[in-house]
Amino acid sequence: MAARKIAAGLFVSLDGVVEAPETWHFPYLSAEMQAAVGGMYAEADTLLLGRATYEAFAAVWPHQSGEMAEAINGIRKLVASTTLTGVDWAGAELIGGNVLAAVKELAERPGGTVTVAGSISLVRALLGAGLLDELRLLVHPLVVGTGRRLFPEGAAPVPLDLIRSAVLPNGVLDLTYRAA
């Protein structure tokens, strides 16, 4: 049994799109949603990011202020990438090579929750390897119509148990699943 919980959080549309939420998510941003996302970061002591999410976050968050920025900038960040040669965001470390083996080793060490933000390919790989303990989805009442989906056509079945659900006033569903 893992010593730490590995939990992923994603914004998703009704049609399953998780790609480029910055192009469709912001009309639904509310105090309640900020609290839900902030709660994910508050329970974490490590943030695990794929390359693309790292690059997007590192371009924005170091230049922000406020409670959320302090949480994200102050947390340990592990970046899963086979193409980056270095990272320069304060508190960030690069995981190269066998990312799944590194995450498995991380999960077996004592510590707090490891939160995966965005990082579609990384979340898919963790789910497929049985390394993801929780999947938190903020399902937006919107059909995006195009873009990468969390579960692509032909993906293997992944049984999940719903362990928490809430409806935010803006119609966003806050759902937390545990690996079955």
Report on the structure:
The protein is 27% helix and 28% strand. An eight-stranded mixed sheet has the order 4-3-2-5-1-6-8-7. Helix 1 packs parallel to helix 3 (67-74). By secondary structure, the chain is an alpha/beta fold. The two termini are 14 Å apart. The chain is built from five helices and eight strands.
CATH topology: Dihydrofolate Reductase, subunit A
So what's the overall shape? globular
Count up the domains. Answer: 1
- CATH architecture designation: 3-Layer(aba) Sandwich
Number of strands: 8
Q: Report the β-strand fraction as a percent range.
A: 25-35%
The largest beta-sheet arranges its strands as: 4-3-2-5-1-6-8-7
Helix and strand succession? EHEHHEEHEHEEE
The radius of gyration computed from the alpha-carbon positions, rounded to a whole number of angstroms, is: 16 Å
User: Average pLDDT across residues?
Assistant: 91
> What separation lies between the terminal Cα atoms?
14 Å
List segments where confidence is low: pLDDT < 50 over at least 5 consecutive residues: none
The CATH class name reads Alpha Beta
How many helices? The count is 5
Strand count, sense and closure of the main sheet? 8 strands, mixed
Helix content: 25-40%
Q: Can you identify the CATH superfamily?
A: Dihydrofolate Reductase, subunit A
Question: Helix/strand/pairing class, anyone?
Answer: alpha/beta
- In terms of quaternary structure, what is this? single chain
